Amino acid sequence: MSQCCLSGFQWSAEPSGKEEKLEAVSTYTAGSNRDAAIIIVHDIFGWTFPNARLLADHFAEEANATVYLPDFFEGEIVSEDMLLDPEKSKTFDLKAFIGRHGKGTFPTISGCVRALKEKHGFKKVGAIGYCWGGWVVFQLGGLEGNVVDCISTAHPSIFTREEIGAVKVPVQILAPEHDTQLTPELRDYCNKTIPSLNLEYDYQYFPGLSHGFAVRADLNDEAQKKGLERAKNAAVYWFSTRLH
Q1: Does pTM top 0.90 for this prediction?
Q2: Above 60 in pLDDT, residue 130?
Q3: Cα separation, 42 vs 47, whole angstroms
């Protein structure tokens, strides 16, 4: 991950869901469908970030699902002030943060996701990851036993060729033109490898846009706003046609 993961804009609308627990993990939830669930794996700004919660509200209504946005940073909050003051982001120790919240957290994450079918009775589960959450959804998609039925990711970070090659469920990637994390080499690897696994694959390219656009777009910038809307609608369609 890099400093681009700390840039972007906060939206002004108010989320309409509620907070509860999922396997003892604090979680924002929206929607009431008992058959289809979507789990959102947040970016570095975590489960309290209003933009992520607003996306959860949209997915719940437009994809007709119960949406879960758990806190996978164990209560640590990255201040949204960094979106307003780029100087603050320069002093943030990103490497140390990722050291505290790296891939060793996956057992907790997978436990939450497994519970959706095993304990809550959902028939279908999808997962979408933004930035930091990208590696998570690839690992979820590589689990045995249909823990998730499909995955989507927008501008994923710190995921590997091994995680790409191990995926077992349909994959959607929402890829901006400018992204130091989703490198040209990784794009090419995804576009060659995932179809060879005989999986449904939806790769969508967003020219002119940058890392973070799908969750931190500037709504006053028409190109970013349209890109955000297109990414949201693409994910809605992806889940609507695979979870119902």
Answers
A1: yes
A2: yes
A3: 6
